[in-house]
Amino acid sequence: MYSHALLTPEQMYRADALAVAAGVSSLTLMERAGRAVAEEILRRFGARPTLVLCGPGNNGGDGYVVARLLRDWGWPVRVALLGETARLKGDAAIMAKRWGGPFESVTSVDGAGLIVDALFGAGLSKPLSDQIVKLSSAVKVPVVAIDVPSGIDGATGAARPAAFRADLTVTFFRKKPGHVLMPGREYCGETVVADIGIPDRVLDEIKPPLMENFVPELPQAGPNQHKYRRGHAVVVSGAAHQTGAARLAARSALRVGAGLVTVASPKAAMAANEAHLTAIMLAEADDALALGRLLADRRKNAVCIGPAAGVGAETRAKVRAALASGAAVVLDADALTSFALAPDELFEAIAETPERAVVMTPHEGEFARLFKDLVKESDSKCERAIAAAKRSGAVILLKGPDSVAANGEGGAIVNTNAPPSLATAGSGDVLAGLLTGLLAQGMEGVGAAAAAMWLHGAAAGKFGRAGLTAEDLPDLISCGIPQNPLL
Ligand SMILES: NC(=O)C1=CN([C@@H]2O[C@H](COP(=O)(O)OP(=O)(O)OC[C@H]3O[C@@H](n4cnc5c(N)ncnc54)[C@H](OP(=O)(O)O)[C@@H]3O)[C@@H](O)[C@H]2O)[C@@H](O)CC1
Ligand SMILES: Nc1ncnc2c1ncn2[C@@H]1O[C@H](COP(=O)(O)OP(=O)(O)O)[C@@H](O)[C@H]1O
Ligand SMILES: [K+]
C-alpha cells in the first residue's frame, strides 16, 4: 500500500526507531546503508581515487562504511572529516574506528576521481557554511551522495543555500520529498532507493500522507457501456479571438474517455468554434445565466472554466454558475486570476457547492495571486498545496516540473514523470481537459488530479523528441490507457 510513499526526515527517523524497536540494530542499518552505496558505486564506476567527505553525524557514519568497503575491494580511498574524530558519537564513532584512518580535513577536492558526499543527510540543520559551498562548486568529478546531496533539505527539496550536484544519490527505505521536489530532484541526479532491512509494516504506524506518482485505477469502458455512462464534460470557451485553449481542453477530455464533450461558447465565438469542432459538440452560452441553464442538465457532470476565459466579472459570474450547478468543476488560468483581488469570494462560493469535487490547477504565479501568504520558502510545495486545499475547500493541483495534487485532509501526490518539453503554450489547457474528462467519468478529485498529471507527463514522454506542441498532446493520450500505468 505504501510503495509510493515519501517520508519526511522526521518520519524516516521514526521508521528507523520502529525498526530498531522491532529488533534490527541501528549499527546494522548503518552497515547496510553504507554497503548499499558502495555496491551502487561498484555497479557504475571503475576503481579510481575516491574521496569520501564525512560529516559529524550518521550521514558521515555511512560514509566510513563506504570508505572501508571500497578500500577492502582494492580502491584507493581517502576520508576527509568535517570536525574531529574525538567528537564523533554512537554508530558513527564505531564506523570511524572500523575505517581506522587516516583522516584528512575537509579543505579541497583535488586529486579525487570520485567524491562520496557523506557530509549531511536527514540532519541538515542550518545552511551550508561558505567554505562548504565553495567546495561543492569546485567539484569537477562524479559525485555520489549518501541519502541526499549535502545542502538539500530532505523535507522540502530546497538548496540551503547551495548543494553538491550528485550524479547518483542513494537513499534508504523510501524517497524523501527532497528527492522529488525541485530543485532537490535535479541535484540528486539518478536516485536509487536501497532496502536496508526496515520492515514495510512500520509504515502502517507512520501512515505517510505524501506519495510520488500514485495513480489510482483509471476508468475503463465496459461492454455494456454507453456514452452517457462515461460522463459529459463541458468546457467554457473564451471570446471570439481566444477559442483555441478551450478546444485543446475539450479534445483532451474526449481523448481521456469522457463519453461526450460540449464546448460552451459565447455567441460571438460560435463561428470560430464551429469551424474547428467535429466529435466535440457546441452549445451557445453567452453569459453566466446561459451557462447555468446549460449545466442544469445533470448529465453534464464536469465543467472546466479558465483556459483563455478572460479575466473579469464575466468569468467570475460563470465560475459561480459552474460551482452552483452540481457538476464537478475544474478552475484553471483566468478563472483563478479573476478572483485575485478577492480570493475569499471564490472560497465562499466553493464552500456552498453541492457535493461534487472542485479542483484548481494554478501554476506558481496563479497560486501566489490566490494564496499570497502561503508563498513561504520554508514550506515545501506539498505543504503549500495542502494549506491551499484546506483554505479553499478545493483540491489543488499546483503545476510545475514537480506538480503536486493535494486535498484538504493533508494528503499530497508529487508527479515526477513530466518532461521539460511540457513548458509550451497550451499544455496547461490540455491538463485541465484531461482532469475534466476524468472527473466526468466519476473519478474523485485528488485521484483525478493525480491521474491527469501523470497521463499528461506520459503523453509528453511518448513524443520522445524536440518540437512538442500542446496540439500533439491529446493524440498521444490515444495510445491506450493501461489499467494502472505504474504496475
Ligand atoms: N534514519 C535511518 O534509518 C538511517 C539513517 N542513516 C544515516 O543517518 C543520516 C542522518 O544522520 P544524523 O541524524 O546524524 O544527521 P546528519 O545528516 O549526519 O547531520 C547531523 C550532523 O551534522 C551537523 N550539521 C547539520 N547541518 C550542518 C551544517 N549546515 N553545517 C555544519 N554542520 C551541520 C549537525 O550539527 P547540529 O545540528 O547538531 O549542530 C549534526 O552534527 C541519514 O541521512 C543517513 O545517511 C543510515 O545510517 C541508515 C539508517
Ligand atoms: N519544466 C517543466 N517540466 C515539466 N513539466 C512542466 C515544466 N514546465 C511546465 N510544465 C507543465 O506544463 C504545464 C504548463 O501549464 P501552464 O503553466 O498553465 O501553461 P499554459 O497556460 O501555457 O498552458 C503544466 O502542467 C506544468 O506542470
Ligand atoms: K549527503
Break the fold down into its secondary structure elements and pairings:
Blueprint: E1 5-6, H1 9-21, H2 26-44, E2 50-54, H3 58-72, E3 77-81, H4 90-99, E4 103-105, E5 114-118, H5 130-138, E6 143-146, E7 168-172, H6 177-180, H7 184-188, E8 190-194, H8 202-206, E9 210-212, E10 232-236, H9 244-255, E11 260-265, H10 270-276, E12 281-284, H11 288-295, E13 300-305, H12 313-324, E14 328-332, H13 333-337, H14 343-351, E15 358-361, H15 364-370, H16 381-392, E16 395-398, E17 404-406, E18 412-414, H17 427-440, H18 445-463, H19 472-477
Parallel strand pairs: 2-3, 2-5, 3-4, 5-6, 6-7, 7-8, 9-18, 10-11, 10-13, 11-12, 13-14, 14-15, 15-16
Antiparallel strand pairs: 1-9, 16-17, 17-18
Helix pairs in contact: 2-3, 2-4, 3-4, 9-17, 11-12, 17-18
This protein binds ligand NPW, adenosine-5'-diphosphate and potassium ion (K).
Protein name: NAD(P)H-hydrate dehydratase
